[in-house]
Amino acid sequence: MLSSTASNGKFWSVADNDMVMLDGDGPTPFIVEFTGNSKLTIKAPNENLLKTEQNGLFKATGTEVNAHTLLEF
User: How far apart are alpha carbons 65 and 50 in whole angstroms?
Assistant: First the structure.
């Protein structure tokens, strides 16, 4: 489970439009799944994967592991 605070002291959260925000008052249970070769996925509380958008934002709308949901560290 991932629990991290932003520089404003807030936590990651998922808004009604599935956008990942840094405005939560408390921790939200995200699950980090390591897939090997320095890659991972992050599952949101709505059971969807975090999906990268072209504009740099994250949305909790991914339904499969692919180039948009696989993150490299």
Answer: 10
The number of angstroms, rounded, from the C-alpha of 5 to the middle of its chain's C-alpha atoms is 13
Q: How far is CA 45 from the centre of its chain?
A: 9
What is the percentage of the chain residues whose pLDDT exceeds 70?
92
- CA-to-CA distance for 10 and 47, rounded, in angstroms? 22
Distance (Å, rounded) from C-alpha 38 to C-alpha 23?
A: 28
The CA distance from 41 to 35, in Å, is 7
**pLDDT tens digits, one per residue of 20-43:** 998 999 988 999 999 988 999 999
Residues sharing a CB contact under 8 Å with residue 49, sequence separation 6 or more, in sequence order: 41, 42, 43, 60, 62, 63, 64, 65, 69
